[in-house]
Structures are given as structure tokens and as C-alpha cells.
Amino acid sequence: GTAPTLAVIGGDGIGPEVTAEALKVLRATIGADAFSTREYSLGADHWKATGEVLDDDTLAEIATADAIVLGAVGTAPGSTEVPSGLLERGLLLKLRFSLDQGVNLRPSVWYPGTPTPLSEEVTGAGPIDFVVCREGTEGLYCGNGGVVRAGTPQEIATEVSLNTAFGVERVVRDAFTRAQARRGHLTLVHKHNVLVNAGSLWRRVVDEVGADFPDVEHDYMHVDAVTIALVREPQRFDVIVTDNLFGDIITDLAGAVTGGIGLAPSANINTSGKFPSMFEPVHGSAPDIAGTGKADPTAAISSMALLLDHLGRPADADRIRSAVGTDIASRLAGPMRTTSQIGDAIAALV
Ligand code: NAD
Ligand code: IPM
Ligand code: MN
């Protein structure tokens, strides 16, 4: 068919820096003619200049792309330059929600030798290689709730988690399918000892869908306990399925223990194929290091492997994964490199 069109949104902070390296590696892997790009300059500067975050016409145009490559959006957590959440909700979450990206896939692989806070006792215990299937369009992210008596001592603020049988089943089925193709193990992560309504829905769906996958074993962990296990015995995990907020939190932890947030890729998958899926690093715009050349582009680059998997080119995706593995292994001995030096090195290895 014709070459796929990628909508590219570099975004804020280090977003454009790491995205440039991701596209460099993608070109080196499949050739510059194998895809075309449409660049969108959205983010803090666009909002300041126009008062718009993501207008409907732009969203409609992005929705016609074959896939989306995103850097990161958002300003420094303490700053008041842009109201907190305006860009995250108005751009990133708007894309995930409007494009119905129900599965937020976040793989974690630890490459031996990669610096990690894990002890040798843990890292010596076998390969660490798991994926988190985070629900992407529901939960506490829906903006369901409100504030009454704002600013008074009687203020009441609510955020209500939305869980639909449809949305839960969609991500659970995807997770079981992945587990079947991997090591045949799935862990549901929730907090059903407290969140009994949503918790029982998630459990029921896992049991029901699990019956269609007799060769996949499944178990359960509370989200607080899973944070211990991710640090003490990460090898036990193959596929984790969980809701939107738990998935957000545990994937930063998973990134940190498998070598740093600068290595963690993600895919926001529209499972129906009606809308484009979106590929982005797990990390944010890192305003503290923007413009310094210190940003590690590896997470953005590995997200291109997920893009190629999605475009039906798994062998090319593996070329990126193996180039990344080789590059990471060489980091121990070598000097610190800049964002573009790491991109160049990986591009030369694919
Ligand atoms: P962050 O992920 O941007 O940064 C956390 C820490 O990790 C910082 O110390 C940063 O320097 C470091 N870091 C992140 N990416 C790195 C990389 N590639 N290489 C080296 N170091 C890296 O999280 P934050 O500071 O909480 O958020 C900053 C902004 O990003 C906020 O506005 C937040 O809302 C936004 N954010 C956006 C996304 C997204 O667009 N997908 C994701 C997370 C946070
Ligand atoms: C992520 C980010 C986003 C999320 C924010 C910026 C809305 O933290 O992609 O992990 O919470 O999903
Ligand atoms: Mn996050």
C-alpha cells in the first residue's frame, strides 16, 4: 500500500528533542520514503500564542493520520505559566480519549548492565521483561466529578472513577492475548479490598475473559503490594493489566527500576483500527533538562519499535529493539552522550 502518514507532535520541553531522534532512527530503519510526516506545533507556546490547545479542526486532521508520534506536553510542575492540567487534559488526554485509545501498552525490559536501583540479588535472578496493559480511556481520568463551595472551609472536591464493562473487557482481552503470545501469565492489579465496585467488575471480567484463554494463568495483586513486588521480584511479571491511574503510577516505577524513565516506551492503541494509535515515551517534558542535550531519547526511539509492531513490521521493530539493547550495553563503558549522539549511535546500529 501507500506509505503511512505520521502526525508528529513534538510538544514541550524535551518532547521535540527526543522526537527528532525517534524519527531519525525510524528513517534509518525503514527508509525516509517508507512514511511521511505532518508536523503539528502544539503545546505551551501554541496555547500562549493562540489561546487554543487542540482545536476541533486540527484534531479531525490528526485523526486521519495512520499513527501519531508524540513527544511530551506540559510545563514545570511548580510553574504557573500555564494552568496545571490544561495541556495534559486538553492535548494528550483529548487525543487518547477522542481517538479511543483503550490500551496503553507499556513494556519494561531490563538490559543486563543497565544501572538500576535494584540489588544484584534481584537482577541476578533472571530476565526482567514484562508489559503493563494500562486502560487508557476511563477510570479517574474522565474528569468525572466537581467542586462545590470552592475556596471555602466547606469545599468538597470529587473525582469519580468510571469503569465500563466494555472498556475493562477491551483492555483485559488485549492483555490476555499478549500473555498468550508471551509467557502465559497475567496479573490483575487493582485495590478491590477498598474499591469494591470497580474492583469486582475488573475481577469478574478477568475471570470471564480468562476462561477463553485456558493456557494463560492469571493471578491478582493489590496495587500497594505490587509496588513492593516490582522492586523485589520483577521477574515474576509477564503481563500486568490495570486501570488508568494505577497503570500511570506503576509504569513510572517500572521505568525507574528497569533503568530509568528515559528508557520506557509506550503505545496508546486504538484496538478497533478506526482511529490512529499514538506512540510516545512514558516520561514527560522534563523542563529541568530541556535544551541541555541531557535528555535520553531511548524511550522515544523504543516507542518507534512499538509503532512498527503496530504497522505490521515486527522484524523491523526487532531491529530497533536490538540496536537499543546493543547501545545500552555500550553505555557502561562509554562517556556521557548528548541526546543527538545517542540517536546517531542507535540509528547506526539498526
Ligand atoms: P517528567 O517525566 O517530565 O520528569 C521526571 C524526571 O525524570 C525529571 O527529573 C526529568 O529530568 C527526568 N526525565 C524525564 N525524561 C527524561 C529523559 N528522556 N532523559 C533523562 N531524564 C528524563 O515528569 P514531571 O517532571 O512530573 O512532569 C513534567 C511535565 O511533563 C509536567 O507538565 C507533566 O504534566 C508533563 N508530563 C507529560 C507527559 C506526556 O506528555 N506524556 C507524561 C508525564 C508528564
Ligand atoms: C503519562 C502522563 C499522563 C498520564 C499525564 C501527563 C496526563 O503522566 O502519560 O504517563 O497521567 O497519563
Ligand atoms: Mn505518567
Automatic annotation (TrEMBL):
Entry-linked Pfam families: Iso_dh (PF00180)
Keyword annotations of the record: Manganese, Metal-binding, NAD, Oxidoreductase
Positions of the Isopropylmalate dehydrogenase-like domain: 5-346
Listed EC numbers: 1.1.1.85
Cofactor(s) listed in the protein's UniProt record: Mg(2+); Mn(2+)
Alphabetized Gene3D superfamilies for the sequence: Isopropylmalate Dehydrogenase
First-tier enzyme category under EC: oxidoreductase
Record-linked PROSITE patterns: IDH_IMDH
InterPro entries for this protein: ICDH/IPMDH, IsoCit/isopropylmalate_DH_CS, IsoPropMal-DH-like_dom
An annotated Gene Ontology molecular function: magnesium ion binding
Xref: PANTHER family: D-MALATE DEHYDROGENASE [DECARBOXYLATING]
Protein name: 3-isopropylmalate dehydrogenase
Lineage, top ranks: Bacteria, Bacillati, Actinomycetota, Actinomycetes, Propionibacteriales
